[in-house]
Amino acid sequence: MTSSVPAARVVTLGVSGRAVAVAAARRFRPQSTPGRLRGVLAVLLAATVLLWITSTILLWGLHGTAASVRDTELPAFLKVIEAHAALSDADRAAWQSFRSGEAQFTGAGQQYQNDITTAGQDLQRLAALEPSGGAGSQLETVSGQLVNYQALVEQADAAYRRDIALGTASDHDLGYAYLASASHSMRNLQGGLLASIDGLGVLDKQALGRQLASPWTDPALFLAFAVASLLGLGSIIAAQGFLRRRFRRVISPPLLMAAALVCGLLAWIAVVALPADAAIAAARGTALPKLTGIWQAQTRAVDTEATALRANAAGNGSGAAPGGLSVTQTQPASAALDADLMSAENTGGLPVGIPATAAVIAGLAWLGIKPRLDEYRG
Question: Does 357 lie in the same domain as 245?
Fold first, then answer.
């Protein structure tokens, strides 16, 4: 037995099926040429924006890191080293003045005063460089210890002069006792003045190390910009290929110029960024260790002489240079370090060049696609 379907229903189903087929065909039919042109233009503009953002982030990340090292972290670290060296030399100079007998005329001596002034200035500069809420309490402790040390040296000088005024035949034992107490307050490994300063140095060295090892100083970061450049260049090549297939355009001059600008920007940033990375690496691996090594060698020589003077050893047999520290020995290494960091800060005109070049690339992309869109409007 067969069932029959009403003719009207068959007709209805047939019409509905054709409508669905037509709708599906409209939905999945290839995009029109104007639509594809607008899509190509959108891709070109998006690639240009990506190139602009990536290059700007790379430039300012590297520049900001170098500037932070040169303006904040490095000066703070060096001020700690210099303050330590100056205070060590101040102790040596005070002992030398007492042992030589000059204390009866000049007290602890002019070199002592110069060293104390230098150390005080270093600590003031360090306080200005420290971030808010940083090592402020430790700096207050160091300042208090420095005042205590100076007070003990002044007491030693007063006792020494009092013995001379009284004409006693003593060996100025009280003056030397105060001076020994001053040295102990400075050089005590457990909470002495130099130990407290070295504690600040540890924090500043860690901060400096983090900045010098920042990801922004890694040459591999340049690869991210290179990838963005290749994407931009690839989008231009793809757009040129589309125009050639669809419109028989062998070469689009605006797109050719845009591709040349992308390559030029890549070369420009390479010329600036790669030497900057190399300069930071040189500062981290060569110039900074050399400078700190000179300061530490001078400090060790000063400490050796101070030890000999405290033990009342004759002469200046420690091998330290007369007058203690020699700033001239540190100047070449300091200049080399500063030159490396100045080179790393060099932006080579890119803060203006990047947005200007990106804007021109976007404009050329528009000029390369717009005439083809205008053909369909006409």
Answer: yes
